[in-house]
Amino acid sequence: MQLTLAAFAGANQAVHPKLLPDTLGVQSLNQKPGRGDLRPWRAPATVATVPAGRQTIYRMGRDVASDANYWFSWTGIVHAMRGFITEDTTERTFYTGDGIPKQTDNTIALAGTPYPNAWRYLGVPAPTTPPTLVALTPGVATDIEIRYYVYTYVTDKGEESAPSPVSLPVSGKTDATWTVDALAAPPAGPYGINRIRIYRTQTGQAGDTEFFFLREIVSTLTTTTDDGRSLGEVLPTDGWLVPDPDMTYLTPMWNGMAAGIVKGAVRYCVAFKPYAWPIPYETMPPDAAAVALGRFGQALLVLTTARPVLVSGSSPDALTEEPLEFAEACIAPRSVASLGHGVVWACEDGLAYFGGGGPKIITAGIMTRDDWQAINPKTLIGASYEGFYLGSYVVGGVKKAFMIDPVNPTGIYWLEFGYDALYFDELQDALYVLDGTSVKKWDAGALLTATFRSKVWRTRDASFAGARVLADAFPVTVHWEAQNLDPAVVTARLDARPGVFTAPNATTLRYTKTVQNRKAFRLPGDVLATDWQLEVSSVNAVQSVVVATSYGELADA
Fold first, then answer.
1. 85: pLDDT confidence band, cut at 50, 70 and 90?
2. 545 and 554 in contact (C-beta within 8 Å)?
3. Is the pTM of the predicted complex or chain greater than 0.90?
4. Residues 6+ positions from 556 with CB-CB distance below 8 Å
5. CB 137 within 8 Å of CB 110
6. How deeply is 30 buried, as exposed, middle or buried, from its count of CB atoms within 10 A (0-12, 13-18, 19+)?
7. Could you tell me the CA-to-CA distances from 551 to 358, 463, 497, 527 in Å, in that order?
8. Which CATH number applies to 2-41+450-556: 1.25.40, 3.40.50, 1.10.10, 2.60.120?
9. Residue 124: Cβ-neighbour burial (10 angstroms; 0-12, 13-18, 19+)
10. Alpha helices in 408-529 (DSSP H)
């Protein structure tokens, strides 16, 4: 009789160890999935350092592949995104979670460490007082018209505010000129405002009246003139507001859109204008508060304190909302990871997923609800890597992690260490983790030790004579256990063969062998048992371990 451990498909905690298929185990630690064998991850390698106490990292300089430059870091939970203009060489970057929403670029952010060294507020506040008008020349035209005036602030990057309050009406001949006065100075603060734009009304042939561009002046002036010049474009910024100071979870969408969470609702910016957030562009989840956002394709998943809401559409004024029949609230906003084909998040029942194939609990059948709660899922932070979900959590002050395939979750792969923050660099297709003050590149250092503990095989009373290991290289450590023995038998074997067996508990005998090559080796065959379990540990890739009741059976193993 032979027992074979091969095709290491991860661990399963939900099914009884004796009922598992041979490919699944009760433990998989530091195992790198994807090849079917037991192979270890490499330890993350330090590439940069940041100040202590950081919870978020982000790399600027994403047009150039680099592990070391330039790492932004924050003490809070920050969501950063790059601007939508591809020809922008300054890499304008927008972020929320660090107080008032902010923006920065490589001309100010990299002046000194820690990065970002400097920033501006995101958005342009509107003037709060109307302009006043004084007649300059009366004009000679026969037609009379009534005019209104407003003005806006403009930054050195071309960002424009909503208009000021409307002036009192002025009536005069169509060719009269006016002094536009009482233009309020821009507010103090890092906005970059350097210009003022003046607009006035004009009635079109259809009888509709709109504000049209009149002229632009430097922001230090408080007065100008309407000298009868031709008018320009219609005022584009009516209703454009600065982002709410409490906005969080800034998330890029598609077609130049972005979303953010404000007091449990989701707001959307004007397309390609991440500084302008009109009030009508809003999603209000029914009977719930939005806590996190995830994107896949051209769909935004709003995760809430109740059921998720799916948002889709081509422009911020034409978005549709669909509450999902999947009542899984998000209990850890940092757990959310967007994987291209779907979104993963932590809920009370396990690790939830929604994508093109619909909703599911990824960990169902792999972990029980009690198992899931035992890892303290409210501490979970997540990221995607090579099609897998990586989740880091904290239990009893100790950080650990796991990986799981959200599409085909056959088993879970546990990791010995966890981290303070995760960041995926799309340019380099690389994952970075924050460990204290060290930014580390995933799977880039020395090999870890991978460990796999098998199912429990149930046999008739048997004694196994030998084993053989197939691996890329050696040594490989094997622990072979006979379980559920009479405690007296365990004591007798320990006394009879000191140094051969150890006893993890009163009913288990363990034999440990450091295997140096592919040759078969003998097992101490003087133990009869019905329950057997195998554990394998190595820094080398292991394809299989075969144990047999007859040493001769291993010739072809």
1. confident
2. no
3. yes
4. none
5. no
6. buried
7. 51, 11, 21, 15
8. 2.60.120
9. buried
10. 487-496
